[in-house]
Amino acid sequence: MSAPSRTTRRLVPYITSREGEHPDYLSSLRGTYGPDGRLQLGYWNELHEDRDLRGVLWGRCSQTIGVDGLPTGRPRWRMVHPSRQRECMEQLRCQVCAQSARTRHGVIFLAGPNEVRSEDVVVRTAQPPVCLKHARAAAEQCPHLAGQPTVFLVQSAPLYGVIGTPYQYGDGGLQALPATDEALPYGHPGLRWYLASQMGRRLRAYTVIALDDLPDR
Predict the structure, then answer these.
(1) C-alpha Rg value of the chain to the nearest Å
(2) Cα angle vertex 163, ends 159, 168, to 5°?
(3) Do 141 and 75 form a contact (C-beta atoms < 8 A)?
(4) DSSP assignments along the chain, one per residue
(5) According to the lineage, what is the superkingdom (predicted)?
(6) Quick one: which of 87, 41, 84 has its CA closest to 62?
(7) What is the pLDDT of residues 161-210, one digit of tens each?
């Protein structure tokens, strides 16, 4: 979620990056052999949590966390913290408060008013869900949603893939290649040399509703 308008009280999403949070150095990466014996991207001191449930490597980034367990520091609007985005997507937590986004009727996802075509059957998104408490605030404050979001009440949203940066070995050693906003699907061979920064899901079974028609709980 991007910066809110100046006419409303600022609500800083949990997934928003903060000043003082920095990505790890390129020198921390290397080529390493995976479980199948093939060369892949890895860390010199790789930890179990550096890879997601599908075995994809994730970019490390420091976190400024307060005593309440929530991020602190001035928000870096339009920048998403990779670990917190991944946490919310994997566990279907609200991108604003990090609490469960599940309701009795499904999980709430929001998209911009012109982001989804009427003929789309499967929708892909890298925006984590929102909870009932923060759905309206997110719709009002996020310029991307323009106060007129498409509201999805979702019953099935399997993981799809990741957005990130591909790497390769060159004359100067390990090099980053140009990144795109397109998600690379899980199972793609290119993920061996990919450093993920955002996780995506497919909204496969859903109902499009009006914001005022959200369930009470």
Answers:
(1) 18
(2) 125
(3) no
(4) --PPPTTS-----TTEEETT--BPPGGGEEEEE-TTS-EEEEETT--GGGB-TT--BB--B---B-TTSSB-S-EEEEEE-HHHHHHHHHHTB-TTT-SB-EETTEEEEEE-TTTS-TT-SSEEE-S--B-HHHHHHHHHH-TTTTT--EEEEEEE--EEEEEEEEEEEETTEEEEPPP-SSPEETT-GGGGGEEEEEEEEEE-EEEEE-GGG----
(5) Bacteria
(6) 84
(7) 999 999 998 777 899 999 888 899 999 999 999 999 999 999 999 999 98
pTM over 0.85: yes
Q: Is 200 exposed, middle or buried (0-12, 13-18, 19+ CB in 10 A)?
A: buried
Q: Please name which of 44, 21, 47, 216 lies closest in space to residue 135, comparing C-alpha atoms.
A: 216
How far is it, in rounded angstroms, from Cα 169 to Cα 174?
Answer: 4
pLDDT value at 119 more than 70: no
